[in-house]
Amino acid sequence: MPNIGEEFGKQRIGFFRSKQAYDAFRHAYDDAMTGLPQPTETLDVETSFGTVRAYRFGTDPRTPLVVRPGKTSSTPMWE
Is there a contact between 17 and 6 (Cβ–Cβ < 8 Å)? Predict the structure, then answer.
C-alpha cells in the first residue's frame, strides 16, 4: 500500500500528497514499464521504510547485475 497523505511527510519517508498524485504516478509508471522487457521475477521486500519492489529481467544463470534508479525515481527510468 502506498504512503498517501501528509502524515507520512512527518516521518521523513517518501509519500504521495494525495490519491490523485498517486494515481498520476501509477499511470505514468505502468505506461513506462511497457517499454521494458517483461520481468521474469518480481519481489516485494519489506523494510522499515516500506515495501521495496525489485524486478529481475532475463534468465541468465550468472550473478545478476543490480541497477538502482536515482533518488526520487523508479524502475521505469531505465526505459
Answer: yes
Nearest CA among 59, 49, 55 for reference residue 67:
55
- Selection from 72, 68, 46 nearest residue 55 by Cα: 68
Are 16 and 55 a contacting pair, CB within 8 Å? no
pLDDT digits (tens, 9 = 90+) for 57-73: 899 889 888 887 777 77
Q: Which amino acid is at 10?
A: K
Query: Nearest to residue 76, comparing CAs of 34, 20, 24, 15?
Result: 34
pTM given for the model: 0.71
11-53: per-residue pLDDT in tens? 666 778 889 999 998 999 899 889 889 999 999 988 877 778 8
14, 7, 5, 1: which is closest to 73 by C-alpha?
A: 14
